[in-house]
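Sanity check. The docking grid for glycine depends on where the pocket ends up, so I'm generating a full predicted complex first rather than guessing from homology. Inputs follow.
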Amino acid sequence: MSTRRKFLHSAALGSFGTLLTKRLAAATPQVAVTGRPVVISTWDTGLAANKGAWEVLSRNGTALDAVEAGVRITESEINCCVGLGANPDRDGHVTLDASIMDHQWNCGSVAFLERIKHPISVARRVMEKTPHVMLVGEGAQQFAIAEGFPLEPAGLSEDAKKAYKEWLKKSEYKPVINIENTKSGKEGHGPHNDLGASGPWAPQRLPNGDWNHDTIGMVAMDAAGNLSGSCTTSGMGFKMRGRLGDSPIIGAGLFVDNEVGAVTATGQGEDVIRICGSHSVVEYMRQGLSPENACKAAVEKIARIKKEKAKEIQVAFIAINKKGEVGAYALQKGFSYAIKNNSEEKMVEVKSFLP
Ligand code: GLY
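Predicted complex below; grid placement will be based on this.
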């Protein structure tokens, strides 16, 4: 297990380990969770993020405040899949993307943002303090600094440095699937290492033994019944400089329609973008599909488009509808998401299109 992986493992599990491992082991069937407030988020990093969101929701706070507070926790993790400690692009720079959307069609996002610890909060400022929806690159950084966000030192986390050094040995431009799973499978829900896929986008281990992974997406309904969502990412490790995925694109990585539901996506952003994934899932729910079936419909569409190449990528969606029902669906097995409401706090293993 790499140092990075060990850190992630112990940070994620810690003294909570035994309990969490039991939860993960038990988290096989998908369940209908209803009632509000409720928060769901992608991958096992979502457990800690949900706790942060819950501190807001349980005090009758807004879903918007909750989804910002929740993913900030993940952004703060030093050697995590999200934020400044994540793997860099192929030129050695960490570039971050994030988006946020509230219950009134207000939305904001930042992309290609460097040296700012909390892109999700900058995205919220874009939403609240500018006439725009999206700021990118240097302009986004300038705006963040003007808003009082500290400019963090340039450089990589220790584990990202190691991973990058390894990558540089071959410097192959082989974008790796956005696995986003920090686990090897030993913990019960990371089976990507036996996918058997091939090709340039195939899931594969990074040279340091870690998996490429990146995003946390979170959607929540507050006690008042309002929906909001957030999504934050370092994007694909060793990506081309300037590459953006779905996460900062409203309608792709995140969409909230307070009349219908809220959705966020994870996985290979390019394929989420090409179907306006999160928006599509909302529209499927508007047509009457359950959150799970709506996510499934979007995944099936991507699978149809990709044809035989579908096995080379991962995409997944998580969704909440206006009744507070939640659901998710993935292209590949191995995707899980975290749920928290008044009665439950758990990981849910998600059904997949491919076996
Ligand atoms: N889903 C995150 C990305 O593709 O960047």
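Relevant for the grid: Residues 29-349 form a domain with the Glutamine Phosphoribosylpyrophosphate, subunit 1, domain 1 fold (CATH 3.60.20.30).
Also worth noting: The pocket of glycine is lined by residues 178, 214-215, 233, 235-236, 245-247, 266-269 (CB under 6 Å).
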